C-alpha cells in the first residue's frame, strides 16, 4: 500500500474542506434522510483499493457536512476544531498509541501530564489537581462526580468502590435549577438519580439564588455534593462561587463546578470577576473542544483530591504494569482503559496559541457577542433576553407581541436564518418561551464576522415579520 499517497490524499481533501469553511454555506446541503440514502448499500463483500475507499467516503459525506468549524456557526456551544489541533490529531491517529499506560505509550502519557499542568495553570486551578482526559464535559462531569461520590461516602465510613451504593448512607445532591442536562445524565449514570436532587431556584440569568441555596443547605446532614456552574448554556451566567462554596464547605460538602466553556473566563483578567472563588471547589469539568478549539473529542475532569480521583476510576489489573507514585497513568483518571492519546492535540493547541493567544481569542469572541447583541438590540421588535456577560446571546423576536405569537416569529426567524445559510444559530426554550441562541466560540470569529451574523439575523427577522403580517 502506498501510505504516503493515501495520507496525502486525505490531507488534501481535509485542507480543501477547511479552506472553504469561511465562505461555505452555514448549513448542510444534504439532510439526514439524504445522507442515509447516500451511505446505504449492502455489506461489502469484496475489497476496495485504499484511495478509492477514501474518495468514496468523502464523496458521500461532504454534502451532509455542516460548517461547524465556520466563523458564523453559532449553534449550540461548539468550538472550531482548529487546524493545528487537527494536524496534531492526524499524527495522533497515525501514531496509533493506546494512551492508557505510561510505560506502553510514554510520549502520549508525557504530553498529557504536561498539557494537564498547563490546563490547571491557565484555568487558575490548584497545580496539584489531577486531570483526566475524557471525551467531553459530559464525561468530565461523570468522572468528577464519581470521585465526589467516593469521597463523601468514605468520609462517613462507607467504601463505595467495593460495596457500591446499595445500603450506603444517602448522599444529598444540591444543584441549580438551570444546570446543564448532561450533569443530570451524569447523576443518572452514577446511581444518584436525576430527580433525587435538591434543586435551587435560579434568577433571571440562571444563577443559583444565594439566599435560596443557604436556606436549602441549612438542613442538610451527612454526605453532600453541591454542583455549581460556570457558564450557563443559554445565558453564559456564573454561579456566585465566592458566596456559595464556603457555605457548602462548612457543611462538609464536595463542590463540583461544570465549566464546560465558562471556566475559560479564568484566562481573561477582564472576566475574572465572573469566576471569583471558583478555585475553591473540589472538582471542575471543562472541555477542550469548546474554547480551546481542539478537535473532537476532548474534555478534562479536574479533581483537587488526586487519590479520590484515581481510586474511583481504577482497579489494578495484574497484566498491566503497576505505576509508581510519580509515574502517572492516563487510564487512572478516566473510565476507559484503551483510548485515543488526547494529550497531543491539547498540547499542540496550547503551544500554538499560548496564554496570550487563548486570552485574545476569548476576548475577541466576547466582544463579537456583545456587538451582535448591540446590533440586534437596536432593532425595534428584537429583544436581547440575557445580560451578555460572556459569549452567549439569547434573542427574542416580536417584542411586544403576545407569547405565542412571539414564539412563532422567533421560530420563523431561526428557520429563515438557517435557510439563508449565511450564518447558523439554533433555538432554545428559556423561561417557557422560544428564543434564538447565538453562541460565539470560534477562533475565526471577530467583529467583521459578527457584523455579518447580525445582518443575516436582522434580515431573517424582517422576512419573518413580513410573512407574519401577510
Ligand atoms: C457543552 C456543555 C456540556 C456537555 O459537554 P460535552 O462536551 O458536549 O460532553 C456540559 N455542560 C455545559 C455547561 C456545556 O456547555
Which terms summarize this structure?
alpha/beta, Aspartate Aminotransferase, domain 1, 2 domains, 4-stranded antiparallel beta sheet, 12% strand, binds pyridoxal-5'-phosphate
Question: Could you describe the 3D structure shown?
Answer:
By secondary structure, the protein is of the alpha/beta class. It folds into two domains: 35-81 and 357-470, Alpha-Beta Complex (Aspartate Aminotransferase, domain 1), CATH 3.90.1150.170; 97-340, 3-Layer(aba) Sandwich (Aspartate Aminotransferase, domain 2), CATH 3.40.640. 44% of the residues lie in helices and 12% in strands. It has 15 helices and eleven strands. The chain has helices spanning 3-19, 32-39, 50-61, 83-95, 106-122, 137-154, 160-163, 181-189, 210-218, 241-250, 272-275, 306-313, 343-377, 403-420, 447-469; strands at 130-134, 172-176, 198-200, 224-229, 254-258, 283-287, 299-303, 382-384, 392-397, 426-430, 433-439. It has a seven-stranded mixed sheet with strand order 1-7-6-5-4-2-3, sandwiched between helices. It has a four-stranded antiparallel sheet with strand order 8-9-11-10. The protein is globular and about 60 Å long. The model has no long low-confidence stretch (mean pLDDT 95). It binds pyridoxal-5'-phosphate. Residues 77, 136-138, 180, 182, 231, 233, 258, 260-261, 287, 299 line the site of pyridoxal-5'-phosphate.
Task: Please outline the helices and strands.
Layout lengths: L2 H17 L12 H8 L10 H12 L21 H13 L10 H17 L7 E5 L2 H18 L5 H4 L8 E5 L4 H9 L8 E3 L9 H9 L5 E6 L11 H10 L3 E5 L13 H4 L7 E5 L11 E5 L2 H8 L29 H35 L4 E3 L7 E6 L5 H18 L5 E5 L2 E7 L7 H23 L1
Parallel strand pairs: 2-3, 2-4, 4-5, 5-6
Antiparallel strand pairs: 1-7, 6-7, 8-9, 9-11, 10-11
This protein binds pyridoxal-5'-phosphate.
The site of pyridoxal-5'-phosphate has 13 residues, from helix 6.
Amino acid at each position: 500500500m502506498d501510505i504516503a499517497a493515501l495520507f496525502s490524499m486525505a490531507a488534501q481533501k481535509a485542507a480543501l474542506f477547511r479552506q472553504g469553511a469561511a465562505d461555505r454555506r452555514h448549513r448542510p446541503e444534504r439532510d439526514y434522510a439524504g445522507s442515509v440514502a447516500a451511505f446505504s448499500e449492502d455489506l461489502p463483500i469484496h475489497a476496495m483499493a485504499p484511495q478509492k475507499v477514501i474518495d468514496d467516503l468523502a464523496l458521500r459525506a461532504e454534502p451532509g457536512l455542516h460548517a461547524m468549524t465556520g466563523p458564523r456557526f453559532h449553534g449550540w456551544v461548539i468550538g472550531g476544531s482548529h487546524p493545528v489541533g487537527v494536524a496534531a490529531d492526524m499524527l495522533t491517529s497515525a501514531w496509533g498509541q493506546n494512551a492508557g499506560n505510561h510505560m506502553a505509550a510514554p510520549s502520549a502519557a508525557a504530553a498529557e501530564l504536561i498539557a494537564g499542568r498547563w490546563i490547571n495553570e491557565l484555568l487558575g486551578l490548584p497545580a496539584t489537581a489531577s486531570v483526566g482526559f475524557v471525551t467531553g464535559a459530559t464525561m468530565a462531569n461523570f468522572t468528577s462526580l464519581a470521585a465526589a461520590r467516593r469521597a463523601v461516602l468514605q468520609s462517613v465510613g462507607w467504601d463505595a468502590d467495593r460495596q457500591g451504593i446499595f445500603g450506603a448512607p444517602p448522599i444529598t445532591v444540591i444543584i441549580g435549577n438551570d444546570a446543564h442536562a448532561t450533569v443530570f445524565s451524569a447523576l443518572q449514570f452514577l446511581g444518584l438519580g436525576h430527580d433525587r436532587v435538591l434543586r435551587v431556584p435560579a434568577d433571571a440569568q440562571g444563577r443559583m439564588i444565594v439566599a435560596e441555596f443557604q436556606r436549602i443547605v441549612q438542613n442538610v446532614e451527612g454526605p453532600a455534593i453541591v454542583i455549581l456552574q460556570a457558564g450557563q448554556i443559554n445565558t453564559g451566567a456564573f454561579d456566585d462561587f465566592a458566596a456559595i462554596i464556603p457555605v457548602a464547605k462548612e457543611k462538609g460538602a464536595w463542590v463540583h463546578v461544570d465549566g464546560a466553556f465558562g471556566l475559560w473566563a479564568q484566562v481573561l483578567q477582564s472576566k475574572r470577576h465572573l469566576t471569583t472563588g471558583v478555585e475553591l471547589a473540589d472538582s471542575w469539568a471543562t472541555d477542550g473542544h469548546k474554547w480551546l478549539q481542539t478537535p473532537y473529542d476532548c474534555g478534562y475532569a479536574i479533581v483537587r483530591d488526586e487519590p479520590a480521583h484515581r481510586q474511583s476510576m481504577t482497579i489494578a489489573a495484574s497484566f498491566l504494569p503497576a505505576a509508581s507514585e510519580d509515574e502517572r497513568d492516563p487510564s487512572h483518571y478516566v473510565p476507559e482503559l484503551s483510548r485515543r492519546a488526547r494529550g497531543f492535540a491539547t498540547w499542540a493547541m496550547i503551544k500554538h496559541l499560548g496564554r496570550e493567544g487563548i486570552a485574545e481569542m476569548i476576548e475577541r469572541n466576547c466582544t463579537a457577542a456583545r456587538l451582535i447583541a448591540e446590533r440586534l438590540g437596536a432593532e425595534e421588535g428584537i429583544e436581547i433576553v440575557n445580560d451578555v456577560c460572556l459569549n452567549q446571546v439569547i434573542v427574542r423576536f416580536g417584542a411586544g407581541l403576545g407569547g405565542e405569537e412571539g414564539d412563532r416569529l422567533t421560530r420563523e426567524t431561526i428557520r429563515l436564518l438557517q435557510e439563508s445559510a449565511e450564518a447558523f444559530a439554533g433555538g432554545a426554550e428559556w423561561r417557557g418561551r422560544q428564543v434564538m441562541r447565538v453562541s460565539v466560540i470560534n477562533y475565526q470569529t471577530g467583529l467583521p464576522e459578527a457584523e455579518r451574523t447580525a445582518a443575516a439575523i436582522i434580515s431573517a427577522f424582517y422576512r419573518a415579520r413580513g410573512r407574519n403580517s401577510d
